[in-house]
Amino acid sequence: MADQNAVRITVLISGNGTNLQALIDAGDDALKNCRIVRVISNRIKAHGLVRAKEASIPTHYHNLIPYREKFADNARTEYDKDLADIVLADKPDLVVCAGWMSILADKFLDPLAEAHVPIINLHPALPGQFNGAKAIERAHAAWLEGKIEKSGIMIHNVISEVDMGEPILVEEISFIKGVDENVEELEQRIHEKEHKLIVSGTRLVAEKIQKRIYNDVS
User: Fold this and answer.
1) Are 183 and 137 in contact (CB under 8 A)?
2) What are phi and psi of 96, to 5 degrees?
């Protein structure tokens, strides 16, 4: 990921960072045209920060609590404005949400749109199904109740409505009787597929960005 012409990526995380690790590991292969310029977490104990540091990727911790103490009712607005400033300071070409467990509001989205920086997110559900948190658990419960036969994962563009942005890549995942009654087994299978889809989705968007940059230069 050292090419000076590489697509510059900022990754937002909140947890263990296994999807971040998939992006890092793809840096010499599927994402060789990309460079992760910073990993930002809203949780100080997120193991993804450790993964980033081990890969010599700059990190930043950005948490809402100090803003609540300082700005009270305006905490979220000021937090999102500062998050946008932090991200844009690195001049990224793309932002990838890889397990970022916080809603991105207009005060963050608008400055990035103005800078023509797309934001994509990995969500463990099919478009229009189980938006928001605990999507796997909710899909699992719906399957046990006989309401659905399949779930899925997707990479989508981020807009202010949670998990409602235009899908970029979608993969359906059928439930397996005799196996998926155990939600932990289901989660593991879905996470393994997520690691591949986040790389494929990031690569697809990065290639479009490179074409746009090339056309702007030429």
Assistant:
1) yes
2) -115, 120
Q: What is the pTM of this model?
A: 0.94
d(CA 44, CA 140): 30
- The radius of gyration of the chain from alpha carbons, rounded to an integer in Å, stands at 18
Q: Is the per-residue pLDDT at 92 higher than 80?
A: yes
What residues does 119 pair with on adjacent strands? 95
Task: Please give the Cα distance from 12 to 50 (Å, whole number).
Answer: 14
Q: How many CB atoms lie within 10 A of CB 73?
A: 7
- Cβ partners under 8 Å of residue 205, min gap 6: 94, 118, 120, 168
pLDDT at 154: 98
Could you report the per-residue pLDDT of 140-166, keeping only the tens digit for each? Answer: 999 999 999 999 999 999 999 999 999
Residue 151 CA, distance from chain mean position: 19
CA angle, residues 136, 199, 15, in degrees to nearest 5:
50
| 116 catalytic residue (yes or no) | no
| Catalytic residue, candidates 62, 123, 140, 195 | 123
Q: Are 88 and 112 in contact (CB under 8 A)?
A: yes
